[in-house]
Design goal:
The complex is a heterodimer of chains A (163) and B (428).
Chain A: H1 2-34, H2 43-63, H3 80-111, H4 124-152
Helix pairs in contact in A: 1-2, 2-4, 3-4
Chain B: H1 3-15, H2 20-34, H3 40-48, H4 57-70, H5 73-85, H6 92-104, H7 110-127, H8 132-143, H9 153-162, H10 166-172, H11 174-195, H12 206-231, H13 239-256, H14 261-294, H15 297-308, H16 312-329, H17 332-349, H18 354-368, H19 376-385, H20 389-412, H21 415-425
Helix pairs in contact in B: 1-2, 2-14, 3-14, 4-7, 4-13, 4-14, 5-6, 5-7, 5-12, 6-7, 6-8, 6-11, 7-8, 7-19, 8-19, 8-20, 9-17, 10-21, 11-20, 12-13, 14-17, 15-17, 16-17, 16-18, 17-18, 18-20
Chain lengths: 163, 428
């Protein structure tokens, strides 16, 4: 799926840039405040926004590789066939959850179109955009994982990847 | 569907191997929809959970841990630790513990310690003839000093969810971190004498110590500089994470000169992997916390606990027993997010200092990283050392003793935690 590969590559670079901004924003604030005595209004809000963007864009990126923390110890004791069905069920439930989260986000944006954030006066739709984008991407990646598990015809043995 | 059913459903799904995000999220969504609450709540709770400035420190500290390895800082810390303490009974096992303490001064995560300096320590110990299981046990038990000694990711998360001062929590971690290291070194010395482990042939000369201290000095100085900057008001506990990145990059450029752009990129990729796993749980757990509050679970627990006893020491004992069990099944981030806000109320009401309670909770949950079945530190160390979990666990048994003794001391001697914060920040 070249489109998915391209999407992942774009996401990866976006996340790397966001991580850089997450480090640079508080540093810029310290320099402006301590050295030039001119605190940057809204730097804190901006850093929080970068964090939100980073989490919801990085989460889909690590889903396929087993980046979501879970406990596989009890599951590992189940015989392979039912374990395979259980893994499929978990992935279907995951798609359902993330689709619902995406729908809830769209509804929230639609109900709050005139709202904006406190300091930077960011439009509400822009503030919610990382979740509106991240939730469908999480559903998409969980879907890719479901297809992968289905095609394997046997359960994944891998543990959660931590680092 | 009441609050306890949500908790029960979460535990059931978690046991069946659902990722924590889904194990928490699915019962919450069922509760909200089942009670006819608006869909907006789901999206708003999830997103607003991350709209917190202290949480910005979490990915940045994860990045510091990876960066220290990419920049070769871990290697210099290890070399200094080797020269300084390898003559002690236990040799490289003592180096392992002391190295973790120095590493802890810049990193705030146990898993970063194991994945970074832990790799070097395990390889060196195996090369000297130590069993891989023993090397893994020493590495994982000493790694929990990382999130206790400042800076610390779990303490920042604890402060965020309970409203306790993050700066006081970080300062409160200094003595417990040192105490834990002393206890682990004592146990290692005792085991070494009994088992006849090798150690360095002689103590280092002053010149040798100075030679290896110099390259490690910037890393050793980090916690002092960071804490001093924080207390002087140059930066907040949250900004400290970004300062640590800048500091790590500066000392890499000025002293070590081993950091390449590829190394920075690799460290960033590693960070993305870890942060997405942890912070997505933080986002979804906010719904869980909200439901528990609406259902009055913290209040019910407060009443139930105060019925048993209103003596803070008895309550702390109950908390410790509860958290040891919780730590076996929940990863530390989830446990802090789910349990801490519930526990804080009755304990603080009974007169327990909030900073002291924070340290007890976090230290206890860090022990949980080392207990099966959900011992993330054990998974990681077993994977790195390529040994079975059984082998690691067998060697871990003696190390639970110093960890539990430290926990007991932290619990029943509050001054170990509260003395430095009071000295530095003031208060009753």
């Amino acid at each position: 799926m070249p489109l998915l590969t391209l999407l992942r590559s774009l996401l990866r670079w976006a996340c790397l840039a966001l991580l850089g901004l997450l480090v640079a924003t508080p540093l810029a604030q310290i320099v402006m405040r301590s050295i030039f005595n001119v605190p940057m209004a809204g730097a804190e809000e901006l850093a929080r926004y970068f964090l939100i963007c980073l989490v919801f864009l990085a989460a889909p990126l690590v889903t396929l590789g087993g980046g979501q923390i879970g406990m596989e110890e009890f599951q590992a004791r189940i015989p392979p066939r039912p374990r395979w069905w259980l893994q499929l069920a978990i992935e279907v439930a995951g798609i359902g959850f993330f689709v619902l989260l995406a729908v809830a986000t769209v509804v929230t944006i639609r109900n709050n179109m005139t709202n904006q954030t406190a300091t930077l006066e960011m439009p509400f739709w822009l503030f919610m955009a990382p979740l509106a984008l991240g939730a469908p991407l999480l559903a998409l990646e969980t879907g890719a994982k479901l297809v992968h598990t289905w095609r394997r015809r046997r359960p994944e043995e891998k543990h959660t990847v931590l680092t | 569907m009441n609050g306890l059913l949500v908790v029960g459903a979460f535990l059931a799904l978690f046991m069946f191997g659902f990722p924590v995000v889904l194990a928490i999220g699915i019962p919450c969504v069922v509760y909200l929809l089942g009670n006819g609450l608006p869909l907006d709540l789901i999206a708003q709770r999830t997103l607003y959970a991350l709209d917190s400035f202290p949480l910005v420190a979490v990915p940045v500290f994860l990045f510091v841990g990876s960066l220290m390895n990419a920049a070769g800082i871990s290697k210099h810390i290890y070399r200094f630790a080797d020269t300084a303490v390898s003559r002690l009974p236990g040799g490289l096992a003592q180096v392992n513990i002391f190295g973790s303490l120095v590493f802890a001064g810049m990193s705030g995560s146990a898993l970063a310690d194991i994945g970074g300096i832990g790799r070097i320590e395990i390889d060196a110990m195996r090369a000297k003839g130590f069993k891989a299981g023993f090397a893994s046990a020493v590495t994982s038990s000493s790694a929990i000093v990382g999130p206790i000694f400042p800076p610390s990711i779990p303490l920042i998360i604890y402060g965020t969810v309970t409203g306790v001062s993050v700066i006081q929590l970080l300062l409160g971690g200094i003595l417990p971190g040192l105490l834990c290291v002393a206890m682990l070194m004592l146990m290692t010395g005792w085991l070494a004498v009994r088992r006849g482990y090798p150690r360095a042939a002689r103590w280092p000369t002053g010149a040798e110590l100075w030679r290896d201290f110099k390259p490690a000095a910037p890393a050793i100085a980090a916690p002092v500089i960071l804490i001093a900057g924080m207390l002087a008001g140059f930066f907040t506990p949250t900004e400290i994470a970004a300062v640590t990145v800048a500091y790590a990059m500066a000392i890499s450029a000025l002293f070590y000169r081993e950091l390449t752009w590829q190394g920075v990129l690799d460290a960033a990729h590693e960070t993305l992997q870890a942060l997405a796993g942890i912070l997505l749980i933080v986002a979804v757990a906010a719904m869980f916390g909200w439901i528990l509050s609406v259902e009055g679970v913290p209040q019910q627990l407060t009443q139930a606990m105060l019925k048993i006893s209103s003596n803070p020491y008895v309550l702390l004992l109950l908390v410790n027993v509860l958290l040891i069990v919780v730590g076996m099944f929940l990863d530390s981030t989830t446990a802090i997010l789910v349990i801490a806000p519930i526990l804080a109320k009755p304990l603080v009401a009974a007169g327990v200092d909030p900073v002291h309670l924070g340290m007890v909770v976090v230290f206890n949950l860090m022990i949980g990283l080392l207990t099966p079945p959900m011992g993330l530190a054990l998974f990681l160390v077993a994977d790195i050392a390529k040994v079975s979990m059984k082998e690691v666990l067998r060697e871990m048994v003696p190390y639970y003793v110093p960890l539990l003794v430290t926990l007991g001391l932290i619990t029943y001697v509050p001054a170990i935690t509260t003395w430095i914060p009071r000295l530095a920040v003031g208060g009753p």
